[in-house]
Fold:
Amino acid sequence: MNLPRTLGELKRSPFSEKQLKTRRIKAELRDNLIARLQAGRTIFPGIVGYEDTVVPQIINAILSRHNFILLGLRGQAKSRILRALATLLDPQTPYVAGCEVHDNPYEPICRRCRDELARLGDDLPIAYLTPEERYVEKLATPDVTIADLIGDIDPIKAARGGHELSSELTVHYGLLPRANRGIFAINELPDLAGKIQVGLFNIMQEGDVQIKGYPIRLPLDVELVFSANPEDYTARGKIVTPLKDRIGSEIRTHYPVTIEEGIAITSQEAWVQRNGTALHVPKYVREVVENIAFVAREDKRIDKRSGVSQRLAISCMENVISNAERRAIRNKEELVVPRMGDIYAAMPAITGKLELEYEGEMRGADNVAREIIRSAIAKTFDHYYEGVNMNQVVQWFDLGGEIKLPDSSGASDIYSLLCDIQGLPEKLGALGIKAGDIPELQVSAAEFVLEGLHAHKRIGRNEERVFTAGEKQPRRAEPGFAREERDRPLRNKRPFN
Structure:
């Protein structure tokens, strides 16, 4: 389709003068949203877990033609939702070519475009905006000024054009005028200084902005959306009351409600498709990783005001896969299968995302993270083995059985040792493991069972991943051992018959 390139051609095209003059940005969002609802299409593709909570409230805000704010803790997809609003814009929007504020060709508001329209008439050149170009985002920081948001006098423009400083042609437009006929988003609104927030009052209520030093008002056409963290109201700043009063809808976001929602988000966001070796992430591994975030959100040693971001589960999953990938490369395995040891190896992706209370600080981030992982394993283990009799496996250790499972050892090195544990191979069926499955899958499942028993304190394990009887003190490697010797799997100590 050849788009009109002059005002004259535009007048003879489907972009009618009446529509472009009367259909403002909020009406455009509303119309396109209604069309999407009528077609039964997903409103915000890629947004998981908000279908019955947040998304209906956003739909109501758009149908009401409100400016709105998303209020929620970190890692709740606030920025992603704001950026997804651009998908509700028209595919092409005509504007006066070269205009900094994307003027409507039929109704220009800036001095330059009005002069050009008077001079060229129907020969006025036309350009087009894509939806992405109509979305402007600003991260609020304490150093943002009114000039950044609204605009200021530009002496260089005045000097080069030979204009007086009082001329409209010397205006340097800020981000807000440059978002004209589009969406303007401000992330972390409380970080914006109070006196700068005041600069948004006019555009929120009267629909125009005033630029310093000029007796003019620009009637902008903008949808204003914001995001904020409730913690920031007291920690770093606040939203001034008159501005909150002008925001049409305040929409609360939240963390995933169910493990399944969390797994869907992590699977969507985590980088799991690696080049090279084939990968299989068992479902119980995904559940343990997701349960880490769920357990941490309930842990009294974690600061509830800060929250536990969904990025914890995403980063943890990436590190788990990387540790399994490293082991597979070293041991020349054809399939990468993560184990429970890989989750403990992913602690660097966990500790940095936990804001600890006083009790947690005293305990230490590493110790808190280990205890959270252990609780997550116990919770997942109960999902598969609640009510299952594990006495035979526990008895094997009580009678003197012992096995070492370093996270660097290949599956073939420890597969036969795990098979010797009485009753263990039969218990793997609950995880979907069959007798003929490859060693990587069976070792991963068997280690999950042992870690689950350890999490419930039915068997013991030391930091070198030596599993022993629960009441025994776990044996430590002798100081004189080389690291390579310590990392080798121990041969099972056979229990007495």
Notes: The chain has 25 helices and 16 strands.
